[in-house]
Amino acid sequence: MIKSKSSIAPAGSSRAKSATNRVEKKAAGEGRATRETIESIAVAVILAFLFRAFVAEAFVIPTGSMAPTLQGRHMDVVCDQCGYQYRTGASLENDGPGEVIGTVCPMCQYTMMLEKNLNPNHRSFSGDRILVSKFAYEIGHPSRWDVIVFKYPGNAKQNYIKRLVGMPNETVRIRHGDVYFRPSDSADLGDAGFQIARKSPSRLRAMLQLVYDTNYQSEALIQAGWPSRWQDWQSPANPTWQVLEDGRRFQVDNAGDAEAWLRYRHLLPDQQSWHEIQQGRVPSVLSNGQLQGQLITDYYAYNDGIERASPFVAGSRRQARGLHWVGDLALETVVEVQSDSGELLLDLVEGGVHYTCRIDVATGEAILLIDGGQRSFVSDAGVSVAQPRASTRVRGPGRYRLMLSNCDDQLILWVNGRVVSFDGPTTYVPDADVRPYWSPDRPGDLEPAGIGSAGADLVVSRLQLYRDVYYVSSNSLSRIETDYQRSLDPVRDIQEVFQSPELWNSTPLFDLRRPYIEFEMGDGQFFPLGDNSPQSKDARLWSPGAPDGWGDNPPPHVRRDLLTGKALVIYWPHPWNAPIPFFPNFQRMGLIR
């Protein structure tokens, strides 16, 4: 074999030495590169462990105790009738043979049986994947309303996620859905030392739960003659408001000074009505004139699934429709002002009391009133103002997004997404025992929300009604968690009262609500609750008086050393199964509030 001279050099020559050096350098370089790669991997692994141990950690939500803020295993479907997308819990599918085979739309109440073999997106999805900051509470302190992850005091290996509502060194009270607190050093003040735990505007908006949205209309209900929930109920024969696009938009041309109101009634079609509609018949509640409306409750679409293991009968959903009246509401809408003068009115009703905002469209001035100015707003410091005022951007013709909330004994107004600042307190002291009110000439809580005009021409669209979270004041595990002290048929009796306005003023049902439940927090002790109160095993249901330490019956608090961190973000909600498998669900990614 002939070899090139240039490729082989005699030993000892300069060319041979140079070639040897190149080989040695190459080998050394390869060894260094391999070592650096291994070191980089090792450092990355170490950093990952350090990141997980001290900075942040990922978790998967298994159950629905924090729904709708965070989803455990669930169904995510679009209603066949109105097109609304909603989620229903499927935690029973985590372990065991249980299966969710149907869901109920929270907008139109249509029962939709799932077709899991034909539609991959009708199968259950895993819970939200979230990122938890472990560093947040190393450099700062937990705050009320934070979503926290902690070690369950009854089992050190089990992580819980709840919302922090009670802080150290205070007494926490749950009363009629709201949270109150009293600092330990104010115990001598008794009941006078308690104040309601209010949410910030941003936190409130994140926690509000949608009751109804006019963008989602069922054509089947419209064809059957089901009335629009938003109407001029006081003048049905000669309405001042025109209903446009089958109840998606409304218009009023109001040249006079008289007030023209468009008001909401909670008109829910039940299973019987849907059955009659699907058979081509007029629902009997319409033909016999029985449809009046009902109270807004602590209903969760997440809890309204149909299980294969349970018999599906007409009365089985009464419990799921909510067992407690919720009076804390918020109204959001888009308003097109078409005149240079007049007033735009927003109104919310709780316990028969009207909480109203009047906006002069000529000047932009907003005024808040309680029962037309008969009651005053009062700050926590005792400052009283009858009609707090503010300047807004609602001036003259234009399109405005407005929102008014009446939650936690406080009115908040947003204009185009920004909170409006008033010249006085917008908080108030309600009656001692608020209950729903109705009379033939004053509908009260039968029409709990309204938008009106006094001399202004308006076009209204995208009316959305929300409710606040309702925390159930139950402190013992039972088949059905309720506020009610006495044993009664907690399904049939309650729903009949909610659907009968003529009973609201006289029924003993609302007198049977527990006055409150209380929990004392010591130094370094925190009180967590789940947003899905009817389905949350939280500190309310733990054992008062139990000693600190691990056990099946822990005390009703979480020690500071058990806090894992603050829930920050949903970084990976479930992906879709079709049409593109594993396609990210971008709409649910975001910060946790």
Notes on the structure:
This protein has seven helices and 34 strands. The protein is α+β, with helices and mostly antiparallel strands. The strands form seven sheets. Strands 1, 6, 7, 8, 31, 32, 33 and 34 form an eight-stranded antiparallel sheet that branches. Strands 12, 14, 15, 18, 25, 26, 27 and 29 form an eight-stranded antiparallel sheet that branches. Strands 13-16-28-19-20-21-24 form a seven-stranded antiparallel sheet, with no helix packed on it. The protein is globular, with a radius of gyration of 30 Å.
Entry keywords:
593 residues; alpha+beta; Umud Fragment, subunit A; Jelly Rolls; eight-stranded antiparallel sheet; globular; disordered N terminus
Major beta sheet summary:
8 strands, antiparallel
Using the coordinates shown, work out and report the CATH topology of the domain at 211-268 and 321-467: Jelly Rolls
CA radius of gyration: 30 Å
Q: Ends: how far apart? A: 79 Å
- How many alpha or pi helices? 7
Layout: helices, strands, pairs:
Layout: H1 14-55, E1 56-60, E2 74-78, E3 85-89, E4 100-104, E5 111-113, E6 129-133, H2 136-139, E7 147-151, E8 159-166, E9 170-175, E10 178-183, E11 195-196, H3 201-207, E12 209-213, H4 219-223, E13 230-231, E14 241-244, E15 249-252, E16 259-264, H5 271-278, H6 284-287, E17 305-307, E18 329-337, E19 343-350, E20 353-360, E21 365-370, E22 377-378, E23 384-385, E24 389-391, E25 398-407, E26 410-415, E27 418-419, E28 449-454, E29 458-467, H7 492-498, E30 517-521, E31 525-529, E32 558-559, E33 563-572, E34 590-591
Antiparallel strand pairs: 1-6, 2-3, 4-5, 4-17, 6-33, 7-8, 7-33, 8-31, 9-10, 9-30, 10-11, 12-29, 13-16, 14-15, 15-29, 16-28, 18-25, 18-29, 19-20, 19-28, 20-21, 21-24, 22-23, 25-26, 26-27, 31-32, 33-34
